[in-house]
Amino acid sequence: MPDYLPQTAANAYSDLLSQCLEPCFTGTGVSFSRKTIKGKVYVYVSARIGATPVQKLLGPEGDETNALIAAEKALWEANQQRAVSRSELVNMCLSGGTLGMTPQEGKIITMLERTGLFQVGGVLIGTPAFRTLGASMGVKWEQQYSTSDIDIGINGQFPLLIPSVPKVSLSTAIQESQLGFVPIPMLNRKHPSTSFKLRGGEYSVELLTPEIGKPKEGPTYIEAIDSYAHNLRFLDYLLEDIQPAVVLFGTGVLVNIPDPARFAFHKLVVSQRRGSHEVAKSRKDIDQARQIIEVLLGSRPGSLEVAHDAAMALGNKFSKTLNTGIKLLPKSCRTNLKEWLAD
Q: Does residue 219 form part of some domain?
């Protein structure tokens, strides 16, 4: 039986998600400056994304521009209280039994969020997404699992046009974040890196994108993040249905995560595609899928049916691999799942 969070913690997470869907910028790291150009004064707003400076013209010096600055500073002051409220909700969730990120993981995901990555369709996948799914589904996982990998999926097949998000090179922002990331060289040194590792540390960030059609040599350029991503077969299934969620760190970090049913089925497929040296990771994949499926069978079984139909539509290779993974689930979970899907 799933171990559900206390209702107070579940309510706190729901309130936190609602609050995080609205911007709560407090002005940290932002300043206004003035430059005189050909005898006329112009006002600029300056900020940093990681260690990357970004400057934008606000307008000519005058009552209208000064009014904009005053209104922005008033908004920052009002948001200070909202930030305090969000921190309190994060603590309520953690006190209720959900597991947040380690300080290092939290800093890394916060840095990624501030680049605008999740606004242009980036999706948190892997074990950090599994942990975050627990909070969003209102359950305590039997095993949370630790990881040193922070994987980000992004679909570059369909460019997203979001003019309000400044274009920032994600790979550059990661390396200039002052967290100590360095690129991991590819086997073919002519190919740009798609993963980054903390110098002297264990944590890494990898950028992934779906491999569509015939395998291609080298990574794929993703315009939305001005960076390259490693091609991964069947990742499109995971990224076709995503939802907002909050990483429980600081004042809450708004991210995108996969639909839980698709996450579970994708984990079963991945478990069968790992190499012989990754047996432990395959077991972890199956157990994470099992925990999610058991929760959904008791609360939203229809989502499993929808995700399964989508999986079957992908073709024989994916569906056969999924069915093999399903056979490795514990008997009770496997039986209940098959009974529901057969109805």
A: no
Residues making up the chain, counted from first to last:
343
pLDDT tens digits along 140-173: 998 767 788 899 999 865 444 444 455 678 888 8
Residue 265 backbone dihedrals phi, psi, to 5 degrees? -65, -35
Whole-model pTM: value is 0.84
263 falls within a domain:
yes
SS3 letters across the chain:
CCEECCHHHHHHHHHHHHHHCCCCCCCCCCEEEEEEECCEEEEEEEEEECCEEEEEEEEECCHHHHHHHHHHHHHHHHHHHHHHHHHHHHHHHHHCCCCCCCHHHHHHHHHHHHCCCHHHCCEEECHHHHHHHHHHHCEECCCCCCCCEEEEECCCCCCCCCCCCCCCCHHHHHHCCCCCEEECCCCCCCCCCCEEEECCCCCEEEEEEEECCCCCCCCEEEHHHCEEEEEEECHHHHHCCEEEEEECCCCCEEEEEECHHHHHHHHHHHHHHCCHHHHHHHHHHHHHHHHHHHHHHHHCHHHHHHHHHHHHCCCHHHHHHHHHHHHCCCHHHHHHHHHHHHC
Does 69 map to a domain? no
Residue 341 lies in a domain: yes
Domain holding 333, by residue range, is 259-343
> Per the structure, how many domains does the chain have?
1
